[in-house]
Amino acid sequence: xxxxxxxxxxxxxxxxxxxxxxxxxxxxxxxxxxxxxxxxxxxxxxxxxxxxxxxxxxxxxxxxxxxxxxxxxxxxxxxxxxxxxxxxxxxxxxxxxxxxxxxxxxxxxxxxxxxxxxxxxxxxxxxxxxxxxxxxxxxxxxxxxxxxxxxxxxxxxxxxxxxxxxxxxxxxxxxxxxxxxxxxxxxxxxxxxxxxxxxxxxxxxx
Length: 206
Hints:
Elements: H1 2-27, H2 29-38, H3 50-63, H4 81-113, H5 120-142, H6 144-155, H7 176-201
Helix pairs in contact: 1-4, 1-5, 1-7, 2-3, 5-6, 5-7
C-alpha cells in the first residue's frame, strides 16, 4: 500500500509541474508570438501590419482570461459562430487548468510540510516518471502533427478546432508551428519547475 501511495505522490507531483508549465506557457504566449512575428514565422496577411496582427492575437489572448466576456470580437478578422465557440471552449479549459493548478499546488505544499517527500523510494518513482515524461515530450516534438490532432480529439468533443480559413481567416495567423513553439516552451518550463521542486523538497542526503 505504501508503494502505491509513493507512486501516487510522484504522479501528482508530475501533474502539478505540468499544470504549472502549461499555465506559464499561456502567460508567456504573447512574448513568444512577438518573437515569431519579428522573425517572420507568422504568415503576413495582405494589408495587415505586424502591429495589426499582434493586436488581434492579444484580443484572443485577453479573451481567454476574461470569463465575464460573452463573445470574442476581432478587429481585423471575421469569425464564424463555430470559431467563437471553439475559443470559448479553450477558455473553459484554461479556467479548469487554473483551478486544478491551485488545488495541486496546495496539495504539494501540504505534503511537503508533512515531510512526505523525504523517502528514497519517492524520488526514485519521480525520476522514473520524469524519464517517461521526457520520452513523451520528445515524441510530441518529433511527431507534432499527430500529437496536435490527438490533443484536440482528446480535449474537444467536436471538430470546431478544424477552422475553415474562408470563415475564420484568423487561423492564418495561428500557424501550427507556433503551437510547436509553445509545446517546447512547456517542456522548458517544466524542467525549470522540476529543478526548483528538487531544490526545495529533496533531502540533502540525495
